[in-house]
Structures are given as C-alpha cells and as structure tokens.
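testing teh design pipeline on a random one, pls ignore if ur not involved
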C-alpha cells in the first residue's frame, strides 16, 4: 500500500471516529435536555441524596459551601444520569468503529457484549444505591458521636457517590471481561479456575481501597465480585463449549462436503471412461 493510500485510510478513520463521537455527544445532550425539562435537576439530585438524607438526624439538611454549588452539582448529577441512559448508544458507536478490524467470530460478540455490559453496569449502580448506601450511611450515623450534627457538603457527596457507582459498576462487569478474555484466547477456563483464590484476595483488597472504611461496604463489594467471578467462569465455559461444538459441526460439514465431492469426481471419472470405451474403434 502506498503512502498516499495509507494517509487517506488514516484520515477516513479519523473522520469516522469524529462522526461517532459527535453522535454519542448528541445522544447524551438530547437525554440531558429531556431530563432537565422533566423531572428536573433538583428532583434528580434529591433522589440521589435520598439514602443519605434518610440516615441524617431529623431536621438536618445537606449544605452547599460553594457559591454556585447549588446550581452546578444538580447539573452534574443530571449529566451523569444522561450518560448512563445513553450508554447503550455510546457503546454501539464504539463497537461500530472497532468491529471492522475484527474477525467474523469476534464480531458476533458485539451485540451480546453491549447488552450484557450495559445491564450489568446499571445493576451494579442499582445495587450500590438501594443496598450499600443505606447500610453505610446508617452505620456512619450510628457511629458518630452524639455531640456532632452531621451536615455533609453536596459536592463532596457527589464525588463519593460517583466513586462508589464507578466501583460497583465496573465490579459487575467481571463476567463480561472473563468471557471476552476466554473468547479471544488470552486465558483459558482452567486458568481462571486456578486463579480463583488470587481473585478473592484481590477483590477484598480492591474493596478495602475503594469503599469507606467499614466492614459492611467492603463485604458488599467483595462478595458480589467473587460471585460474579464464578458466574463469569460458568459463562466462559458455556461459550467455549458452544464454540467447540460449532467447530466440530463445521468440520463434519466440511468432511461430508469433501466426501460428496470425491464421490462426484469418481462418478465423473467412471462416466469419462465409459465414454472413452464407447468411442474406441
């Protein structure tokens, strides 16, 4: 390939990347605009803060230290929700850019990966919101001295929530990551079984680093990660079995096709010999 062709190919890839990024940003902006109209940034932030406000003493509210914090923080929360809702479309655009460079058997994973990764990420966030937050905030409220009236800052709360959401969302992606690694041949199912004990230790280390320093939140992250690791091994084994079965079926079809061709060639050779014998003087 000439230098001119390589340059044109590189530019075309950049143009396609730009177009897909613009589509993703437009989709996020559309969802953001719809959420800003209804139910509104204030209502969305109140829903996000509900687990904390339920654990605060009666009559206590959160505070906003910055001048524009009451305006910016609800908008950030709305933007985060818009990104999560538009995530399937964003992942589809990313897959559309990457898939032309993959093999056919790798491209077949595209839609299942997009659907499963989106569902698992949202499940991780939901698990964190509905279960972990309530347990953590009640533990902190009961542990705090009676002489202290907690009044958390809304910006600090947003930073904490985004960290927790990201941690639990990524933790719930463990099955997808294992299936992809096995499908690409990076690791085998047997190796994943051998590494089980190492992953359990790593899960508890990650939970201790990411979550607050209480046992409840650490166990709430580490235990699901271990269970999802087992689920990933099971899914990877099913995928590898189906792939092996497909290869065996394809080999059987090729063998049958080859046998049929051999029979047709033998028949053609016999017919040719018969014609030759008929035409002999």
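output:
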């Amino acid at each position: 390939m000439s230098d001119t062709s390589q340059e044109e190919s590189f530019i075309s890839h950049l143009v396609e990347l730009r177009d897909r990024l613009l589509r993703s940003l437009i989709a996020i902006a559309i969802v953001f605009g719809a959420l800003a109209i209804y139910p509104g940034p204030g209502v969305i932030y109140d829903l996000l803060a509900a687990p904390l406000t339920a654990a605060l003493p009666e009559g206590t509210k959160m505070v906003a230290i910055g001048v524009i914090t009451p305006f910016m923080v609800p908008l950030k929360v709305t933007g985060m929700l818009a990104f999560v809702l538009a995530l399937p479309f964003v992942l589809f655009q990313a897959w559309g850019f990457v898939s032309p460079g993959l093999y056919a058997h790798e491209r077949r994973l595209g839609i299942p990966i997009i659907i499963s990764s989106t569902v698992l990420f949202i499940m991780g966030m939901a698990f964190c919101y509905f279960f972990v937050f309530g347990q953590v905030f009640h533990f902190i409220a009961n542990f705090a001295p009676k002489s202290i009236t907690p009044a958390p800052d809304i910006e600090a709360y947003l930073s904490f929530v985004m960290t927790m959401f990201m941690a639990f969302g990524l933790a719930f992606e463990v099955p997808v990551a294992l299936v992809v690694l096995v499908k690409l041949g990076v690791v085998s199912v047997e190796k994943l079984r051998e590494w089980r004990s190492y992953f359990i230790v790593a899960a508890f280390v990650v939970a201790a680093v990411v979550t607050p320093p209480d046992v409840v939140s650490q166990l709430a992250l580490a235990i699901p990660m271990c269970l999802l690791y087992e689920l990933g091994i099971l899914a990877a084994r099913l995928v590898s079995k189906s792939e092996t079965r497909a290869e065996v079926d394809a080999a059987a079809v090729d063998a049958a096709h080859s046998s049929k061709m051999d029979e047709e060639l033998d028949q053609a050779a016999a017919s040719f010999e018969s014609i030759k014998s008929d035409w002999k003087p």
